[in-house]
Amino acid sequence: MYNKLQYISQGNTIEEQLYNIHQALDAGCNWVQMRFKDQSFKDTFTLAEGVKSLCEEYLANFIVNDDLHLAEQIAADGVHLGLTDTKIDEARAILGTTKIIGGTANTFEDIENHVKNGCDYIGLGPFRFTATKEKLSPILGLSGYFDILQKMKKNKIEIPVYAIGGITLRDVSPLMETGIYGIAISGIITESTEKEILIQQLNEKLYAKAIV
Ligand SMILES: Cc1ncc(COP(=O)(O)OP(=O)(O)O)c(N)n1
Ligand SMILES: Cc1ncsc1CCOP(=O)(O)O
Ligand SMILES: [Mg+2]
C-alpha cells in the first residue's frame, strides 16, 4: 500500500529542488512528488533524472507533477494530474496499469469521475489557504473533508484520499478522523530545520490507528 506521507518538492532551481528533496529523503520521506513549475523542458528533464536516482538510492517512490510524458520518458513510478491537466483515462492508456496515477479533487463528483477513469489515489484539497499554490480551488476545511468522506462511504467508493494544502502537524489527527488515508505536504517539510523530528511526528499521527 502507499505511504501515508507524500512530500511535494519546492525550489526555484534544479539545485534547490535537489537539495530539498535530498533533505526530505534523508529525514525519512519515502514518497516524493517532483513539482517544478514553469521551467524549460531541458531543466525539468535534468531535475527528473537527478530525483529519480536519489529516490532509487533511498528506495522511495517518485512521481512527477503535471507532466505525463516526462513521467513516461523517465520511467518514474507515476504522475499526479490536476483537474486541468491530462485526463486520468488518457494517462492510464499511456502509462499502463503498473504506474501510479494520482488525481486532484475538490468535490465528491471529482472523486467519482477519477475513480471511474482509473485513478489510484486522490489529492483532495485545499484544506486551507496556502501560498505554495496559486489559483486555489475553494477551501474545504475539516467539515469539507468530513462531508466528502461520508459521501464516499455511503456510495461505497474506496480509494486512498490524501489531504493537501496548508497542513500542519496539529491538523493531522483531526484530518485522519475524517477518513482520509494520508497527507501531501510541501511547505512545512521544506521549511523545517528539524525535518527528521517533524517527519517522525507526522508519521506517528498518520499511522496511529494502524499501530493500536
Ligand atoms: C497529492 C496532490 N494533490 C493535489 C495536487 C494539486 O495538483 P494541481 O491541481 O494540478 O496543481 P499543481 O500542483 O499542478 O499546481 C498535487 N500536486 N498533489
Ligand atoms: C500543490 C497543492 N495543491 C493544492 S494545495 C497545494 C500545495 C500544498 O503545499 P503546502 O503543504 O505547502 O500547503
Ligand atoms: Mg497540476
TrEMBL record:
Biochemical pathway: Cofactor biosynthesis; thiamine diphosphate biosynthesis; thiamine phosphate from 4-amino-2-methyl-5-diphosphomethylpyrimidine and 4-methyl-5-(2-phosphoethyl)-thiazole: step 1/1
Pfam families in alphabetical order: TMP-TENI (PF02581)
Entry annotated with the keyword ATP-binding: no
Assigned EC number: 2.5.1.3
Listed cofactors: Mg(2+)
GO biological process: thiamine biosynthetic process; thiamine diphosphate biosynthetic process
A Gene Ontology cellular-component term: cytoplasm
Residue span(s) of domain Thiamine phosphate synthase/TenI: 15-186
Binding site for Mg(2+): 66, 85
Keywords: Magnesium, Metal-binding, Thiamine biosynthesis, Transferase
Amino acids binding 4-amino-2-methyl-5-(diphosphooxymethyl)pyrimidine: 33-37, 65, 104, 133
Gene Ontology terms for molecular function: magnesium ion binding; thiamine-phosphate diphosphorylase activity
Catalytic activity from the UniProt record: 4-methyl-5-(2-phosphooxyethyl)-thiazole + 4-amino-2-methyl-5-(diphosphooxymethyl)pyrimidine + H(+) = thiamine phosphate + diphosphate; 2-[(2R,5Z)-2-carboxy-4-methylthiazol-5(2H)-ylidene]ethyl phosphate + 4-amino-2-methyl-5-(diphosphooxymethyl)pyrimidine + 2 H(+) = thiamine phosphate + CO2 + diphosphate; 2-(2-carboxy-4-methylthiazol-5-yl)ethyl phosphate + 4-amino-2-methyl-5-(diphosphooxymethyl)pyrimidine + 2 H(+) = thiamine phosphate + CO2 + diphosphate
Function: Condenses 4-methyl-5-(beta-hydroxyethyl)thiazole monophosphate (THZ-P) and 2-methyl-4-amino-5-hydroxymethyl pyrimidine pyrophosphate (HMP-PP) to form thiamine monophosphate (TMP).
HAMAP family (UniProt xref): TMP_synthase
Homology family: Belongs to the thiamine-phosphate synthase family.
Full protein name: Thiamine-phosphate synthase
Source organism: Flavobacterium nitrogenifigens
Gene: thiE
